[in-house]
């Protein structure tokens, strides 16, 4: 689920938390990083489960409508297209998802089902829902496009759901953009001919998990030397004038230059420029690019960078 860029963002957030706290225990902060990444995965699973629970709420609504004393013909013969949505059924039937939810005891939507009600009511009253039910087309692609639409336009931007998640886990606020993007990518990749929906793991492989911890530890342990190098390239800047996030991104990038021989210099620079565009000031990417370009050339010249493999410089 987590890409290398996502991992860098989580390390950046943990670095920022470390610099803002009075705690200087790296082991404690490392455990916090690992915990926050695990909780981010919980949020991913809960978002998938929310789609299932909204479908279940729709089914409850239909069943209650059929039992009305003065049920209409529409109540007696409801449109079942939504509760029979093929993608939602695949998610609901996913053994891997259900096992993960049970193992992690993620029962939020059963305990706080009023938020499921809120989402269901917004879906039920939306034009896209009405048009979906009215459509005579019946295909996996249409079902998938509908699910993607309600997640993107109704679930992801819902303020009440946002407030609820904020109350549950403070770190989830920072995680939401990454998780929502991951959910959309996951849904878009799903195909009709795949027999069972398989839930991605938090890390693609063991190397990515180790990369997160090593990047965090090595940046912290060597940051004083990295700060000196940054100051040499910014003689007219007081270190306090450099934005906190910019300083952290520069130190992390220098760490990758020095301590991660398999990562190309260009990849490192491009990754941190993209993160800066999203998480720092409007001019940060230009500032960071200038510093990293100068430092990478200097490091190469002095042979401080030792990349392994073809095309890694």
Automatic annotation (TrEMBL):
It comes from the Bacteria. Residues 202-297 form the NusB/RsmB/TIM44 domain. Signal peptide: none annotated. It holds the Pfam family NusB. InterPro entries: NusB-like_sf, NusB_fam, NusB_RsmB_TIM44. Keywords: RNA-binding, Transcription, Transcription antitermination, Transcription regulation. This is Transcription antitermination factor NusB. The gene is nusB.
